[in-house]
Amino acid sequence: MSRRKMDTKLVATDTLDSCSKIDEKPQVLSAKLTMKKKKQKFDHDDDLELLSKEELISRVIQLQAHVQQLKNIITKQKMQESKTVNNKPVKSFDFKRYKKRHVALKLLYLGWEYQGFAAQEDTNRTIETQLFNALMKTRLIESRETSNYHRCGRTDKGVSAFSQVISLDLRSNCLEGKGIFVPDGYAEGNKKDGQCEEIHYVQILNKVLPPEIRIIAWAPVVNSFSARFDCLKRTYKYFFPKGDLNIEKMEEAAQYLVGEHDFRNLCKMDVGNGVVNYNRNILQAIISPLTPSSDKGYQLFELTVVGQAFLWHQIRCITAILFLVGQGKEKPTIILDLLDVKQHPRKPQYTMAAELPLVLFDCQFPDVQWQYDTDGLNSLIRHLQNHWTNHCIRTTIIKQMLTDLENLHGEHTESISCQTEYLTMGAKPRIYKPLLERPHCESLEDRIQHYAKRQKITQDSESSSEKATSILSIHL
After folding, report:
1. How far apart are CA 167 and CA 105, in angstroms?
2. What Cα–Cα distance (Å) separates residue 199 from each residue in 173, 234, 376?
3. What percent of the chain lies above the pLDDT cut of 90?
4. Are the C-beta atoms of 451 and 272 separated by less than 8 Å?
5. CA nearest 216: which of 107, 378, 103, 361?
6. For 291-308, what is each residue's pLDDT tens digit?
7. Which residues does the annotation mark as catalytic?
8. Residues near 377 by Cβ (< 8 Å), separated by ≥ 6?
9. Which of 18, 67, 150, 410 is most buried, by CB atoms within 10 Å?
């Protein structure tokens, strides 16, 4: 049997196995098999340029139909899960008996083992998914769609936060007060006048959230408040060991970041989602020591960057360039070169710094009075102390091993200081090529033109796409 036939047989087997779990009809099996074969044919977006207009239209129709199938599957699974819990009927909850309150929640999370903050269709390992699972389980909201939800920042895979903030409408025990409003269908007269012992939002949410996610405080806010649009400034921190880095050179380079600049060469451009303005204002960029200088290469530092808003992967790109400066591979003025988009309109190819040390450290808002609970704070401190003990002991064991090995190694050759190697992603070339001499990515203008063409194709095929999606949905 040829390799192509074997691959086709495996695809067909996988498709039949996955579809049989949801009792799909033969027509859908055939459609999914066709789509999977087509998907394997194109491994990269650039291959789309080799297709004819008709083939592109067909591809768009297939992808949109597949998305609709996934949505239908997820909806069906949610309906089945909501019917029973441990094979027992779930009692309906009467939200009409309660008014609602617009609140802000401050939370922290260790994002190392999560796929980012924002919810994704193909995984439950996101902070947002876990948050809404807890909100639904505690009956604080009826659904995400009706919760008037906003988030301050969208952290990526592996990134943590100490002061992430979200705003949404929660069920309330109070009849009046800041943020209280009457929802549609509210049944008046269910509560006595003057009753206002608010729900302990922090306490009940922390009981059902995963151990890596914790609510720190809550605050009543006006109904127009948005965690995204009302944030005055955001602070990110990136932690790193000194290793062989020249901290003074890095500090000099960091100062060139301050002010309003076009950061298209110091981020990952997201034109596909409509981001075409890359001007951002950096208010502060400083590097500070965290541990004594006697630790030599193991001394820890933090890069603190404060701004009004940030671009996709902006901090990790900035950190990667600062590392190159600290390693002596680039001059501090490379920051000025990359910020000069007239002379350098196309981003040179380089890898970002690792995501593990990045933390959304603070978000500041006007007129938000956070409500802290003493017992809750004590519990949170104990909880994080347990995490600290766990990781600190592991770090101490490894450090002791390193000390012994370095003492042995020092008797024969020079010491090694490569503690930051782990934080610089990608392959390490033997001969370093300066940034401005490397191949460049597409310019912003080229990307805008590329997506404009794709949008035109999508619009031309919109009616055909809706028709195909409707037919496949009927079979599901």
Report:
1. 6
2. 6, 29, 14
3. 58
4. yes
5. 107
6. 998 888 899 999 999 999
7. 156
8. none
9. 150
